[in-house]
Structures are given as C-alpha cells and as structure tokens.
Protein: Butyryl-CoA dehydrogenase
Organism: Algoriphagus aquaeductus
Amino acid sequence: MPSFYSKKDLFFQLFENQNCLELTQLPYFSDHSKETFTLVLEAAEQIAEKSLYPIFREMDRQEPQLVDGKIRIHPAMGTIIRKFGEDGWINAIFPYEEGGQQLPWVIHLAAGFIFQASNYSASVFPFLTTGAANLIRTFGSKELKEKFTPKMFAGKWQGTMALTEPDAGSSLSDLTTTATPASISGVYRIKGQKIYISAGDHDACENIIHLMLARIEGAPSGTKGISLFVVPKIRLDGAPNDVLTQGIYHKMGYKGAPIAHLMMGSQEECEGYLVGEAHQGLKYMFQMMNEARLGVGMNAVAIATAAFQASLAYAKERPQGRKISEKDLSKPQVPIIEHSDVKRMLLFQKSVTEGALALLIYCGILSDKIAQETSAAKKLKMEALLDLLTPIAKSYPSEMGVKSTSMAVQVLGGAGYTTDFPVEQYFRESRIHPIHEGTTGIHGLDLLGRKVWLQEGLGWKTLQQEIQHSLDQVKSIQELNDLGHSFEEIFLKFNHSAGELLFKRNLGPEKFLADATLFLEASGILCVGWMWIKQAISAQKAISSGALEQSFYLGKIETARYFMEYELVKILGLIPRFHAASYPTVTMEKDWF
Amino acid sequence: MPSFYSKKDLFFQLFENQNCLELTQLPYFSDHSKETFTLVLEAAEQIAEKSLYPIFREMDRQEPQLVDGKIRIHPAMGTIIRKFGEDGWINAIFPYEEGGQQLPWVIHLAAGFIFQASNYSASVFPFLTTGAANLIRTFGSKELKEKFTPKMFAGKWQGTMALTEPDAGSSLSDLTTTATPASISGVYRIKGQKIYISAGDHDACENIIHLMLARIEGAPSGTKGISLFVVPKIRLDGAPNDVLTQGIYHKMGYKGAPIAHLMMGSQEECEGYLVGEAHQGLKYMFQMMNEARLGVGMNAVAIATAAFQASLAYAKERPQGRKISEKDLSKPQVPIIEHSDVKRMLLFQKSVTEGALALLIYCGILSDKIAQETSAAKKLKMEALLDLLTPIAKSYPSEMGVKSTSMAVQVLGGAGYTTDFPVEQYFRESRIHPIHEGTTGIHGLDLLGRKVWLQEGLGWKTLQQEIQHSLDQVKSIQELNDLGHSFEEIFLKFNHSAGELLFKRNLGPEKFLADATLFLEASGILCVGWMWIKQAISAQKAISSGALEQSFYLGKIETARYFMEYELVKILGLIPRFHAASYPTVTMEKDWF
C-alpha cells in the first residue's frame, strides 16, 4: 500500500518537536502516556489502511445520489461509521463519566489527520458527529444529552452542523429560518431552508441529527437573535420530522461525502428542540468553532500530505532525463527526484505540509492546556494566543493545500493529470478548504479586524514573545546560525510593516481592512517559518545527541533552510501593501471591470 | 448567454493597445484591414456562441470512451470540426496559393482565444490539425502536401502531434519508436508506442494523421537522431495502417478532448512517410514549437478569462453581507462586488488575464512581423526577442491560469465548488497548461540556460530596451506618474538581481540552474507588469482624447495600479534567491525526504 502520511514525522511532531506528553502531567489526562497515545494512533492507522484508503478512489467515482428523496452513499460507509462508534472514536475526547476516554484533543486531531489523509470523504462523517454531539453535551439539557448523544457516540446516528441558507452564507446575521414555540416547553416548529449541509442526509445511519441555527419569532435581528436547535430527521417516537432532502450538490471533490439542501417545515411539522438558552445559538456555535476551524486546517494538511507522499514515491521511481551536468546519453535515465527542480517541488510540499502540521499540533496542545488551566491569568493569555492563531492555522493550510496538491500534480506531469494516479483527486479535494468554515477573506477580517486587538493585543504580543523565544534559542545553536539569521531578518521586517499597518486603523474599516487577507497570508508564512525554526532546533538536538535515523533530521534542517530561503521571503512581496498609500481594491468601481 | 470573454478588451488589445493594423502595411497582409479582422473575430464569436459554448458542460460530463478499439467523442464534434474546415479556419493563416487567407497569425490566435474561452475541449481539434498540417506544408514533399493537407484543411481528417512515449516525456532524446526503411523511397515501417496523444483517435473525422517522431535504424542517439513522419491511421488506399488505440486516458479536465495511447506496428504493418530530411525531426518540430507554446499560453488565458467573466457576473448579482462600515442590519445586503476583498479577487483575475493576453498578442504580432521582415539584422533581433519571450508567454499564463481560476472558485464560495456553476470546470481544465508543451520547469531551464545567452544576450538586451522605452513613455505622462515610479523601482531591483544571478553560471549548471523556475516566474511578472504599463498608457491616451466609455479606461488604469502594488511586488519575494549562497534544492538528498 502506498503511504499516505509519514508516521515518523507525526511522532516527531508530537513527542519530539512539541512535547505533548506534558499534557499527561495534568490531572485530567493523568491516565494517559506515550503508550496510550501510540496505541490510539496505531489503531487509527489500522482503520485507515484496512478500511478507508482502499475505497478512497471508489468513493470519488461512485458519487452519492439522491434517490426517491433519500441520499445513497457508498455501501461500505455504514460499517465504517459504526466501527468509528464502537471503537470509541466519536466520543474519545469526552470525560469518562460520559463514556469517553478523556483523550487529549490534540491526539484526537492527530488521529483525524491519519483518517483524513487516507480518505477525506470518509473521515467527514464521524468528525461531524463529534462536533454536533459536543454542542449538545456542552450546552444542552440533561434530557437532550441522554436522548441524543448515546446513539451519536455509537455511530448509529449522524450529527450535522446546519448553518448556511440560500441567502445567508458568510453573512450569518441574515439567517431567516424560523422557530415558533410549540405547546411543549423547549419544543419549537422549525421552518426554513438550509444548504450545503455536509452529511445532511444519507442511508448509512438510522437517523440524522441536525444542530441547526434558527431565529425564534420576535428575536432581535442580526446575530444576537439566533438560537440553536436539535432537529432530528426522524423523531424519537420514530415518526418522520418534516425535514425534506430537497437536493444534493454535486461537487468537484470529496465526492464521497454528500452535501444536502434541506427543507424544514413544508408541512408545518418540523420539530426542533432548543439547546441551552434562546438567542445564544451563535455564541454556542462559536465556542466550538475554534476547534472546527483547526479541524479544517488539519483536513487541508492531511490531503496535502497524502499528495506529497504520492508525488514523493513517484519521483523516487520514475526515471526521466539525466542530471543536468550529464551529457552522455548512453547513461541510463535517473529517477526524477535527482533533478533540483523536482526536489524544489518536493521541498515545497514537505515544508508546507510538515510546517502546517506543526502549527496545528501546537494549537492542539494549547487548546488542551487551556481546558485544564486553573490560573485565570495564564488561561487568558493562552486563550488570546489560540484565538489569534486560529484564523491563521485554518487559512494557511487551506490556501497552501491547494498549491501543495497542485505541486504534487506537477511532479507527476502528464500522469498527474490523469485519473491513473490519485494526485488529481487530492487537488480537487483540497480546493474546498479555503471556502468552508469561513472563507479566507472572512478569516483575514477576523484576524486583522478583531483578533489582533482583543485584550489590548494580548494574543498578538504573546505570539511575538513566543517567536522571540524560539529565535533566541536558535541563535544559540551554532549549526543553525544561518537559519536564525534568515528568520530574524524577515521577522523584523514583518513586525515593522505590521506596526505601520495597525496605525491605518485610523483610516476607517474600509481602507484599514482592505488588505486583511494579505496580512493573514503574511502572518501564516511567519508562523510556519517559526514552526520550522522549532523543528530545526529539535532536529539539531537529535543529531547532536547521536540519534538514529540522522537522515530524517538532516532532512528537517534542510527543509527548514528551504522554507526560509524560498517561502519566508515571500513576506517581502506582501508587506509593501502594509505601507501603501493607495487602495485600488477600494477605489476600483464595479462598472470599471 | 453568459459572456465568456470581453470583446471590448480583445479589440482594445489588438487595435488600441497594440496596433495590429501595422501588419496590413506589409505586402503579404495588404488585402487585410480592420474590417476583415473584425469580420474574422465576429465570425469566431458566432461559432463560439452558437456551437461551442452550448456543449461546454456536456462535453465534460459525457467523456470520450474507448469502445471496441475506437474512441467515441461527443456527437456534435463531427459537425463542428467540419464547420471549422469549411469556413476556412484550419488553413486561414496559410498563403492564398495553398487555399489559405494569408490571415496574420495574431488574428488567428485571437480567434482561437474566443473558441478556447467558450469551450476549450472543442477548440483543441482544429488547433491540432492546423499545427500538424503546417509541419507537412513547411517541411514535407509536394506529394505529401497534396495527399494529406487538403482533407486536413477541410476538417475531414484530424491532425495530431505524436511525441511522448512511456519512457520519454520531457526527455525527448530517449525516444525509442523506430522507423525501418521499406522498399519504396520515403516509406518506413514504424514500431513503437506513443502516449498522451491529444485527439489521437476519435470518430468525428474520417482519418487521423499523426505527425510522429521516430528514430530511423542506425540514427545517432539523442535528439539528433530523430526524424519526423506522417503516420495516418488509415492509409491512402483505405486500408488500416496498424495503428492501434491501446487505451484512453481519463483526466481531471478538458475531458471532451480524448487523449490516446497508441501502438504502432504490432503487426509490423505500420507505414510512415518521412517528412523532409532524415534526422531533422526535432528541429522541424521546434520550428513550430514557438507558435504551439504561445498557443498553449493563449489556451490558459482563455480559460482563465472565461472563469473571470463567470465570477464577475456572479459577484455583480449575488447579494451577501453589507459594506464593512455599515452596521445597520435592516439595510439590504449588497452584491458581493461591493466588498474590497472580492474586488481584490476580481482585480487579480482581471490583471492576470488581460495582462497575459496583452503579452501573447505582443508575441503574435512579433511573430507575424518576423515572418515578413526583409532586413536580416532586424529579423535577427526580433527573433531573439520572441525566442526569449516564448517560455515566459507560455508559462506565466499557464501557472497563473491555475491561480486565477482558483480565485474565480473562491469568489463564488461554496457555489463555486459545486457543478452548478462552471468555475470548477475551468479550474480543472486550467491545470493541464503548466504540464503540456514543456513543463514550467523545462521552460525555466530553457529561459535561463539557453534563451538568455543566445546571440550574446541579444534577446535579453532587446527586452530591456523595449521595457525601458515604455518606462520612458509612462514617466512623461503626469497622470501615470505613480505607476511609472512603482514599475521602475521593481524593474531596477530585478535587473540588479538578475545580473547577480547570471554571474552564477560560473558555479556550473547544477547550481546555476537550480532556481531557473523562479527566474522564469519573476520574468513573467515583470513582462506582464510591462504590459500593464503599456495598457495604462493607451488608456490614458484614450481618456485624454475624450474617448467614450471612460469607465473601461479608468478600469484599465486602476487594474494597472493593482498589478504594480499587489503582483509586481511579488518579485521582491523571488529575487533573494538570485543572490543566495546556499542551495537547498541541490544539497537536499533523496533519502532525507
């Protein structure tokens, strides 16, 4: 079986580069150890290899179809989803008393990475159920919890997140789905439409449980009048709940996971059950959103990792041409990995995927620490940092995932464009991530317009300190002198320019935020550069201490060098905008196009 | 019908920004005028609108299939190809005495742009036949010409270019298809395999005429031993020619055009007819290659243009959110084109596609002038410039086409990812261009390793002079002062760094060429920046002379400004490599990945 991820690298990230075992020092995680984490990850690998990867291509070719009002998906998915339930994957992160394993979220994220790399479409189903169940258990009543979560945890019922409507995509404040109180307390009649609902209907589970945003009659307008409901496809008494599957979207990639158009209440018979308090729906959603967004970042990294592995394997085997200095045509052709430009394309992928993976694991550990932190001051600081990093850790992998999978296609050349190889599928699948869970543009606004300013810039300042700390470290290691120097130069320039940009807030939101996406892009490159500094330090430590597998560590350092010299410098092409005095994206008029 | 290109812009490019009517001063083109050119382009638009665009989605969904050894394509293609023949499109650029219309190649290229923007798959068939017929008429004997070209011109026979083999893709010197002299002079027995042959077999034409590279027995090794043959699928006497369609490739995009795997001589009965002299095949091919490469650049621009138009139309109509400074939610949502970040994504597409179109038209006019130039010295200089620009004009549109169509998807958000809109198809189709007709990596080597140095740098120096000329012009126009200043700053930095890079030739080819692709990328951005300077000058002239449609010209200038401030500056992120002292893509070892 071709490898779709690097176990060596994942373990390096978790246990060497960032010490996730620190978490086991915390009382909540104290039953865990390197052994339990390893067992979890190896179990994930087994499922991925035995059940998910083998149907990865098939699920793309046999798209879900809407037949007689029901969506049919790949026949293997029923068994797979149940297996996820039975083996405890869906509720692994929840407390013992809820049947969970108190697994750190970062390990869950790492296991998800393995699933996603092997078959992104298949990985979507349990991921969604975990998210939906988490909303119920965190904010719902005891009754809701008892009625819904056990079957969701068991993989018998599918969970979904139902936010988007035909006229309210990025603009959630314009939601129009309504909820009218019924005679029973907490029960509402739901009426409206939802579009692009992932796993919104399918035949692999007995029921579909939508966590749906709607507006209770008379609620304030805007985001403050939105409430959260549990809306099952089939009611607990077994009767259908007037949730119609109006349509299925056919899409460019991850075709195995169906996306539905739902219509609620066309017979005025759709029941929904309020989660928590009225009008708090969006707040609840957003408390889960950080993790969902990091999850999307991880999806993007996983797909790009699989594409990298596929192109790496091809490059090692495919003979074509000779070294550029070799003029003797009687010599055999060499594998294309011998060509510098092919190595450049592989280094690009390696640096982007492993750097982004490092960032997501950093955020994952931070998230676990925050949940257990007892000092309010420390917690505030860590939360500020995670809030700040979230749009970056969602967007960098998503945007670069498209470029990285594109590079994988390029390594294979004509072969990569055909369906004989999986890279074209990875390329198509990766394209969703800059769109869902907030487009890149939305995250740019979130970062520059909101996150940077929260708590008087606490998150931003904390990030600067953390980066400076790594920089001080690397500068003390002689072998990595050049890396530290390269990084510092760009870090200083970035900071200087970012400072200029922040002053532009005085110009009003239109101009100030005009280049928010570029600021997000530059911040992403910087953070991943920082992650490569961290990785180089860890690798140099291993080399100096005489670790086995020197080649792995040498590769890490060389890739860090690649990142500094080819990717980090791209910040230089973005920061001129931070100083700019003209605003073509503001002043361009729509009739001028 | 949605618009898939801007007629206004195409006419601006041809008649205002670059004066293609200069060509009509030359004796060979003297029968032509703005009227004849306009007629040609409007006829192209009619075919595109009536026949090509309507089946653009369908051809993607009903892929060609290999049935009983024959490839079946969309049933409408037979009529369409014949119409291309009957209306004189296939041989339009050839001389009157060969039945052509002596149409300038640039007008043919512009008409192709319209066809390709409406339906790339459909446009491939006549484009290939023109190229193949051109090889026969330029290098073939009178007999070959008489026997093959008339039916090709008529659209009855399909032409192909058969180069690639399973073990020889980018490395043409490793071709192994053999040609053994038969008893009749000029006739050879061909044996071997060819892969990825576009339109290599289909049922819409009576015959398929392959222009095939093969090695005559005893020929020298390498590229100097390659000869060119005409290999028909069916011989002139109506007997099959032992060319088997061994397979069809299914691919990510432009699915309507079949790509075949061919096997010649499995029964030892495949006849081929030598074109021109033995061992000159690659030279012949390469004499046609410039135009083929510019053609691929144009394909990429055309697809990205159609995607831009689709996303522009969507952005003007789709209401979502409010202006960022508008806090009143009772106000209606605004079309997304009102958002600066959406305008940024549209400006990106507009600047890339219109800038690349300008570059290709520049090259097209240059090519027509070269063919008619009588002064050897002038010709040499123009040829050097075109040779230098060719890898750039192929690669910039190809690489940026992928990014530009990706941006079109992003403008539509979730909708763009579904098959309800055409942008996902454009995204998939555009991905082929960095691969075929020489990968981007190959063109980087061609530019930095070869083209820059030819004739003691004549092409390179000529380019510098031409750019300097435009720069002097723009600096004399007060309204465009800021543009001239922005461009000059980067132009000087690029030149300085490029100078440093050229000195690295002393380090040997491995290191010197390690960053050839980055040099190509930076050169592409520079040349397209130059094209925007030219367009801004033309637009300002029109405004100053009180032209109608001011908004079109204002849009041109604002887009030029966008390009300088957002795209041209990306050169700053590339040139640090030109000075670099370490070479991670050279020193990275394959076991380190």
